[in-house]
Amino acid sequence: MIGRDLLSMDDLERAEIERVLDTAVHMQEVGLREVKKVPTLRGRTIVNLFFEPSTRTRTSFEIAGKRLSADVINFSSQGSSLSKAESILDTAKTLDAMAPDAVVVRHGVAGVPRRIADVLRSPVINAGDGAHEHPTQALLDLFTVRQEKGRIDGLTVAIVGDIAHSRVARSNITGFLKMGAEVRVAGPPTMLPPAVETLGVKAMTRLEEAIEGADVVMMLRIQRERMGAPVFPSVREYAARYGLDREKLRYAKDDVIVMHPGPVNRGVELAPELADQAPSVILNQVRNGVAVRMAVLYLFAGRPRGAEGD
Amino acid sequence: MFRPDRLLLSPSREADKGGFVNPRDPAGGSTAAPPTPEPARDPRERIVLDPTGVRRALVRMAHEILERNEDPSALYLVGIPNGGVPLAREIARRLREIAGVDVTVGILDTTLYRDDHGVTGERPALRTTEMPSAVDDRVVVLVDDVASTGRTIRAAMDALMDFGRPRAVQVVALVDRGHRELPIKIDYVGKNIPTETSEEVILRGRDGGLEGPLEVVVHSRGGSA
After folding, report:
1. If you count Cβ atoms within 10 Å of the first and of the last residue's Cβ in chain A, which end, N or C, has fewer?
2. Which of B122, B126, B163 sits opposite A2 (nearest CB)?
3. A197 lies in a domain?
């Protein structure tokens, strides 16, 4: 996988997903040591190129790179030429001249990481592009589920919220289906993409129906900036119908786990008491993010295409 | 998964109590034919330590470790995966038998400390690291199955230092095949086996993995295959 791009969960075969998850198990052990650093990527450079604000994903990639001893450089849209209307591809070419071993890209527009990957010789890791994909989030969700449940194959996973505009949902649908889970999606009809069932999922408009007998319930963040748009019901109405609380959770299996990519709108998609305690595994997801991104950097970073030392 | 209970190397361990083998004796119970008829051996393979030879070498090295270390309670055996792990557990068992000491056994993967992380090919799979207690002020005995270039031991020492400051570090290798590239000395050698660089030295159980009685074979790659 060295030198390959990770733009979408479609880029990974099931065996490769398993390889990332297996590697992450060992990376997690590194995070439990007193000295949380190994020399594996010493002398290698990882660039975080974030065109969209992000705290946890950028920090998580930064910690992951540093724990592997790579030099991590952060470019964000404030305080760099990114805000001076330099074109994205010019920025990418400038970066390429610096010969990084991996470039982690987040952008608000779907497809930008792929365009950047086309001009860069370094591997590009998609850290979220518009409503398209967020593969490392899906990998860390898969990792968390495997850790909690011991397997993924045969589980029933319900994803609830604004499916149509969620890169987390899209990457997770692909990932969980590849790993053999049954995936259901639920949300208001305006938030379900047309023909979503062609992806291989079951689509439902009632939360209770979607989570019935589920092993995993994944609640998506409602984006406040989208509230008030015509497709959006009132917050109260949304919380009443699609917000998860202990009462509704009784439809799921007794040993269900509740996930959320963060940050949580307490009282909207998730009742406050569910955000902070079992069966919620939200903090495990954050913690696992570092181990999974270490695994991704370990397996993908490097410039194998004769692009060394320009 | 290693199962220490399955790694008792001998079904008749009474027979070899005190079975001391001279380390410099190249014939030290090594090339004897396996006790049970084998289903057709690979002709490119020769056994250099059969299960009896492995057992004797481990018993002898356990004695040597006790001779060299006055305070056995400071000992901390650390197996390097994969082969070093069952060997470390077996040495710990022998130390308990001989001296009644319960020695800590850890597992230390060296993969993330290797010096050959190239930019081409695939990254090697990571293996378990499990260090049950601190190494500070302990005498750490690294246990590897086959010592050769010394690079694994170098990596293991670097990894070890991230876990603390041992009082001393010593090294056990069941087989030393030579070809050292670094100034690394093996303190306890089960058997010296001169090899060609094209040959491969493999520790394995009957199942081809690391279960059951262990033996060491030399496999000549290349050849007619």
Report:
1. C
2. B122
3. yes
